TrEMBL record:
Pfam families: GcrA. It comes from the Bacteria. Residues 58-113, 121-140 have a biased composition (Low complexity). It comes from Komagataeibacter xylinus NBRC 13693. This is GcrA cell cycle regulator. Residues 42-155 are annotated as: Disordered. InterPro entries: GcrA (IPR011681). Gene3D superfamilies: Homeodomain-like (1.10.10.60). The lineage of its organism: Bacteria, Pseudomonadati, Pseudomonadota, Alphaproteobacteria, Acetobacterales.
DNA sequence: CCCTGATTCGC
DNA sequence: GCGAATCAGG
């Protein structure tokens, strides 16, 4: 079954994407593969993010070599070096915790009330053998400002198990620029390196 | 080898 | 429309 990209799901995708999380990261939190994330992101039209590669131009030689072609005099050589959310974005000081069972699970309790004040969240967080997320610890980005793209008019924090009849979204009024309400935003933006397969 | 995202193509 | 497979760069 193809992933059901609901408005809420898309809102989450957009939010996390905009936060600068990697596709794999978003995928984990959304319980999809990075491919799904990047694929959907493309179709959604978002995706102005730093690309590590530039994929060789396919040899699809235009059958009809229209003379009125090549309007681009090759201004910039390649990718834009000025990507604000590039490196820093690789590991936001706060990463949305996987919204597993906010009500059931007592959360991680590590939730920091203050969003991203510390440049070095790592160090002490190296207790448990993190399955992954190595580089994810280094950077500490800036507090994302400029809230644009209204998410939805309702908090899209998932409650219950996705796919089950009881599953629903919070529905409360979200914070400006966020897909979650104030309460769930606190749960969502937990410190770092937590979550993974907590969604189960 | 790990990571990253991009594109292609069968479904 | 979806996403695995594949590609490509760091």
């Amino acid at each position: 079954m193809a992933m059901e990209w609901t408005e809420e799901t898309i809102a989450r995708l957009r939010d996390l994407w905009q936060q600068g999380l990697s596709t794999a990261e978003i995928g984990r939190q959304l319980s999809v593969t990075k491919n799904a994330v990047v694929g959907k992101a493309h179709r959604l039209g978002l995706k102005p993010r730093p690309s590590p590669i530039r994929r060789a131009a396919k040899a699809a030689s235009a059958p009809a070599a229209t003379t009125a072609e090549a309007p681009a005099p090759t201004p910039a050589v390649e990718n834009t070096p000025a990507t604000p959310a590039a490196e820093a974005a690789a590991a936001p000081a706060v990463t949305p915790a996987a919204p597993q069972a906010p009500q059931k699970a007592p959360a991680k309790a590590q939730a920091t009330p203050t969003p991203a004040p510390q440049p070095k969240p790592a160090a002490a967080a190296e207790t448990a053998p993190a399955p992954r997320a190595t580089r994810a610890t280094k950077a500490a980005l800036r507090p994302v400002s400029e809230p644009r793209r209204r998410s939805s008019q309702s908090c899209c924090w998932p409650l219950g198990d996705p796919g089950t009849p009881g599953f629903h979204f919070c529905g409360a009024t979200p914070l400006p620029g966020k897909p979650y309400c104030a309460e769930h935003a606190q749960l969502a933006y937990v410190k770092l390196r937590d979550r993974r397969d907590n969604v189960a």
